[in-house]
Amino acid sequence: MNRIVVLVILLCSGMSFSQVGIGTTDPRSTLDINGNLSLKVVDYNGGPGGSATVIDDGIYLNFTPTAGNVEFILPDATTVPGRVYIVRNISNAVDAVIYSFGFVAGPGNGVEFFPGDSRVSSKSVTMTADVGNDGGDRTKTLMFISDGSNWTYGHIGF
């Protein structure tokens, strides 16, 4: 009986430190992908003021704001720690405004957005349209990452 208990413990402990490899028989990380990676792409249309479009699916998100329908809302960062979104405002005429569930009025309350290069937070993020059609808009494509408390965001330097 003791041998069975020891065997079960050894098998379970080996599973808890497992590494998974896709396209490799020698994974070097918890998840080791030796090949291409595809991310789910989802298109969203903006919602009107006070009724933002809820973001509930996808990783690479194409936002299409239109006049009067510019609002989008991310999940509460406290409920999705580690979640990553890559967001692109595909409009060349209208800015997109991003909010988050978990917002509480007042500085330092609830979920906030922090630029990756700053300690100053905001309750929303505006992604500018490329009105000049010159590609010079740094907030046209942004990455958002939940740290379990707030959203950290920054531009992608393509």
Structure description:
- The structure is a single chain.
- The protein has one helix spanning 2-16, and strands at 20-22, 31-33, 41-45, 53-54, 60-64, 71-74, 84-89, 96-100, 113-115, 125-127, 141-146, 151-155.
- The radius of gyration is 21 Å and the shape is globular.
- The mean pLDDT is 85.
- It contains 1 helix and 12 strands.
- 20% of the residues are buried.
Task: Summarize the helices and strands and which ones pair or pack.
Layout: H1 2-16, E1 20-22, E2 31-33, E3 41-45, E4 53-54, E5 60-64, E6 71-74, E7 84-89, E8 96-100, E9 113-115, E10 125-127, E11 141-146, E12 151-155
Parallel strand pairs: 1-2, 3-5, 4-6, 5-7, 6-8, 9-12
Antiparallel strand pairs: 7-11, 8-10, 11-12
Helix content range: under 10%
What distance lies between the first and last C-alpha atoms, to the nearest angstrom? 61 Å
Q: Structural class of the helix and strand makeup?
A: mainly beta
Largest sheet entry = 6 strands, mixed
Shape: globular
Order of strands, widest sheet? 3-5-7-11-12-9
How large, in whole angstroms, is the Cα Rg? 21 Å
Q: Give the low-confidence spans.
A: none
What amount of the residues lies in strands? 25-35%
Q: What's the tally of helices?
A: 1
